[in-house]
Specification:
The structure holds two protein chains of two kinds. Chain A is of the alpha+beta class. Chain A folds into three domains: 1-68, no CATH class; 75-106, no CATH class; 115-214, Immunoglobulin-like. Helix content of chain A is 37%, strand content 29%. In chain A, strand 9 (190-198) and strand 10 (205-214) form a beta hairpin. By secondary structure, chain B is mainly alpha-helical. Chain B has two domains: 24-126, Rna Polymerase Sigma Factor, Chain: A (Orthogonal Bundle), CATH 1.10.1740; 139-224, Arc Repressor Mutant, subunit A. Chain B is elongated and about 65 Å long. Residues 1-25 and 129-135 of chain B have low confidence and may be disordered. The chains are: A alpha+beta, B mainly alpha. Strand 1 (5-6) of chain A pairs parallel with strand 1 (4-5) of chain B.
């Protein structure tokens, strides 16, 4: 069962709410409407699904496009090698490839070159109790959900490694109901805790999110 | 069937056509008052009525904020708090029942989060750096998310790089619509059309490919009907 609450919420408003961009008074009215309106609940769920899928797929498509070669695969390499190794090209090229592979495999993972990619990650209020995932090569901007927190005059963000060591700290920038910080890239893969602390009350912990950094 | 005018955001003019036959009429302010009085007098049917009107909405909000874990318990706890508060007379303006329920639900979300943070911190204090709770999403959720991302990739592969950039600016970088339209030389209508086409395509491919609904919907439906 549900309730008819008319008029229903517009697509734009639902999108802005889903993206955390709706001002609190409008969000309050919308949430009251959502409590009783099944139709708008379903529409918001679809909007959430769309945005979540977009935020996963779009960087993948962009990365694929970036890595897509301009010429046919292997064409430039074949042309270069044919000039250099006019005699016995196969054994020489094979040996070079084997050496390159051995060097790459012997190299610690942290020293391998990863393409740097700018990435915006939303850390929701322990939604799904899941950690957000990024890569060591990502130039990270984190947006922390302040939903449910009492308004504070000063937030500070700390990022702690799994051994408790603080690896980054700084002031956040309020973007609607989100707090944005840009810790940049992470040197080491692993689990991290992103904490919002009260800047005034001796850094008392207000909220904590899990973040996983992968190679 | 009666309906309530409830000004939410910029409303759609054709919204009336979206009402479904099984949707019951909503009580107006005076009917909320009657319902509240019946609950205060211990009328069980009034509590059932309240539950049937709001349990799905409470479930939806909690699931969206906290995820599907222990959702039934959380809905039950929240509903209990609402009923007890009404019976104690904490609701001073019965016509604001929906706002009151929203406030209770939001407080519950904040309390659940605080509990989770503190229990995790206590665990960390006991075994600092030794064990980390495995709080990743479960395989089924991951599978659904990956399926949806795959569908979205198909949608994005089918559109031009310019259209992709427009959508990326909006959904990923959260640039304002006005800025995007100005910098990409777009009219507001073109911008809306691009978004709605992408959504329609995503929905269409999703219906074709996904045989089951997302876990959230599933977990909501399980108890919404009970």
């Amino acid at each position: 069962m549900g309730i008819i609450l008319e008029p229903h919420v517009s697509e734009d408003t639902l999108e802005r709410y889903a993206m955390g961009l709706l001002p609190p008074p409008e969000a309050a009215r919308l949430e009251e409407h959502l409590l009783g309106c099944h139709l708008c609940q379903d529409r918001l769920q679809e909007t959430d699904d769309f945005i979540q899928a977009f935020r996963i797929a779009a960087p993948r498509v962009a990365e694929e496009e970036r890595l897509r070669p301009q010429t046919k695969p292997g064409e430039w390499l074949r042309a270069a090698l044919s000039g250099l190794f006019a005699w016995r090209p196969l054994p020489v090229a094979g040996a070079l490839a084997a050496i390159a592979l051995a060097v790459f495999l012997a190299m610690p993972d942290s020293q391998r070159i990863h393409p740097v990619q700018t990435r915006v990650l939303d850390l929701r209020a322990i939604r799904s109790d899941a950690s957000a995932i990024a890569r060591v090569s990502d130039q990270l901007t984190l947006r922390l959900d302040l939903e449910g927190l009492q308004p504070e005059s000063g937030y500070r963000v700390e990022i702690a490694a799994s051994n408790g060591r603080i690896v980054w700290s700084g002031e956040g920038k309020l973007e609607g109901p989100m707090l944005a910080v840009s810790p940049g890239t992470f040197d080491e893969p692993g689990f991290y805790w992103v904490r919002i602390v009260n800047a005034r009350q001796q850094g008392s912990l207000l909220r904590e999110y899990a973040l996983e950094i992968r190679n | 069937m009666t309906s309530v005018r409830n000004d939410v955001g910029d409303a759609e003019s054709n919204s009336q056509s979206m009402s479904t036959p099984e949707t019951p009429s909503v009580p107006d302010g005076s009917q909320w008052r009657v319902l509240v009085e019946r609950i205060q007098s211990g009328d069980n049917s009034a509590m059932e009525e309240l539950y049937s009107l709001f349990s799905r909405g409470i479930r939806f909000y909690l699931c969206r904020q906290l995820g599907p874990q222990e959702l039934d318990d959380k809905v039950h706890d929240t509903f209990l708090i609402v009923v007890q508060a009404i019976q104690r007379g904490d609701l001073r303006e019965p016509e604001r029942l929906m706002g009151f329920i929203r406030t209770v639900v939001r407080r519950q979300v904040a309390a659940f989060i605080d509990n989770a943070v503190h229990s995790r911190r206590e665990q960390m204090d006991l075994e600092t750096g030794v064990s980390i709770a495995d709080n990743r999403q479960n395989p089924e959720q991951n599978a659904i998310i990956e399926q949806q991302a795959g569908i979205m990739k198909e949608v994005l592969d089918d559109i031009s790089s310019r259209d992709r950039e427009i959508l990326t600016r909006f959904y990923l970088h959260e640039q304002p619509q006005e800025q995007i339209c100005q910098e990409m030389n777009l009219s507001e209508t073109q911008f809306r059309l691009l978004k709605s086409r992408a959504k329609a395509r995503f929905g269409e491919l999703g219906r074709k490919k996904l045989n089951r609904k997302s876990l959230n919907k599933l977990s909501m439906r399980n108890t919404a009907g009970s």
